[in-house]
Amino acid sequence: MFTPTGEIVAAARAAGTATGAFNVITVEHAEAVVTRAEAAGLPVILQISENAVRFHHGRLAPIAAAARSIAALAGVPVGLHLDHVVSDELFDQAAGCGFGSVMYDAALRTYPENVALTAAAVTRGHRAGLWVESELGEVGGKDGAHAPGVRTDPVEAARYVAATGVDALAVAVGSSHAMATRTAKLDHDLIARLRDAVPVPLVLHGSSGVPDDELVAAVHAGMVKVNIGTALNKAFTAAVRETLGAHAGVTDPRRYLAPAREAMAETVRVSLRLLAELNSCGLDSFRRGTAG
User: Fold this and answer.
1) Domains defined for the chain, CATH in brackets
2) Catalytic: which of 83, 153, 167, 187?
3) Residue 83 is a catalytic residue
């Protein structure tokens, strides 16, 4: 069932756990995520980034419609989130294309510019019924643009949330986008201080590079939304390579997309198993969280 992102995140926060947010590039990505979410009985969030929209010739509506349809038919709550948006034009398309939330990304701007641009986006987003996430502190690894040593300052984070009115805050605590290995070491003390400093849920970007024990500790310290993307793409690509390597004459794309989808689904299953262990009540806990 399609469910606003804000409701899913609020329920996870109330339960003291986290929700998985998985990046979608193709229909197969969305199918892989939702089938395993249904099997686990857990809510999930489907995320489409501005980079993914660019891959689809800059057209948001078609891939959004596919993901929204998959969410609507799901047997568990599924949110639809537009991720890492730097284009105001794209941001303003989100509500009309069926999204419940947007991550507006002005993290590469100066602090005053980030505040001004994000506050304006939040005003427009709230007017359109959107839940708005933003970023303070540069999460490493995004096309080489973000500085891996930067950390979000709790005092600055509190000022930023008050000035912008954002509904959730992505913070830099040691993870990095596009990590191919799970070797990230997070600053759990900083996560706890950020949790105590701001009144909104914290978001962990670059979770594909975070080992299980680090991720569990991060959720215990205060992370509520956990973004996963690169791990799915690694599984997808490895499965395609294996299929084509074993069957060089294959021309029907279904022959390699099916195992690729299943490989992504297995990655989602493993991620959701970890979240299920953190929230042993699964979907029932979600329902209690939204009811309260």
Assistant:
1) 5-291 (3.20.20.70)
2) 83
3) yes
